[in-house]
Amino acid sequence: MNKQIEAIIFDLDGVITDTAEFHYLAWKKLGEDLGIPFDREFNETLKGVSRTDSLERILELGDRQNDFSEAEKDELATKKNAHYVELIRNISEKDLLPGIESFLIQIKRADIKIAMASASKNALMVANALGITSYFDHIVDAATVVNSKPDPEVFLKAANAVSANPENCIGVEDAAAGVDAINAANMFSVAIGDSTILSHANVVLSSTEELELNRIIDKYFAS
Predict the structure, then answer these.
(1) Annotated catalytic, 174?
(2) With 186 labelled, which of 90, 108, 148, 201 sits at a CA distance of 20 to 30 A?
(3) 53 assigned to active site
(4) pTM of the entire structure?
(5) Catalytic member of 13, 18, 33, 174
(6) What is the pLDDT of residues 28-69, one digit of tens each?
(7) Taking the domain 7-17+93-222, which CATH number applies?
């Protein structure tokens, strides 16, 4: 079967815009409220991980995983999200990472489907605020995803939503767990960031400014 590219599927945080700092501040505040301080190094382990799983990791850090009922954990996660939403209230087109809109335009002109596979339940809200919703053929609602990254479910859902064969899809991520998810979905993985952390991706770029469709296509067909 001839190789082809049917869809390019994006993560949101750290790829399209950098809301990671807002997530860090919101989780840090919740951690402090619970008497569980943590640093940026620990926060790196939360990147690409769902809200529920992130909360579990924080509670385990403070050895408090058995201190709350499931309902109370839901309340804690909701509290974190409310603070996060408050922090991103002023996000706009200026917060798109460099090169992203140009890359989206290139993909559209090539008549390749575009989807989003984010762990964030606020993905659609953020996409609307960034003014990029019209580029996307589908944005997966993270609330419908059972298994968080590194499980491939969210990428497979995105591919299915745009009627694309996962083997003919390219996934773009900035987190190690996200690259694991793309690879597990049997897609071609493009990572943005530190090559020592993301070396398991098919292609690693140092920044979003390096995203250029013809370059990615060449790497894809050479693989």
Answers:
(1) no
(2) 108
(3) no
(4) 0.83
(5) 13
(6) 999 999 999 999 999 988 887 889 999 999 999 999 999 999
(7) 3.40.50.1000
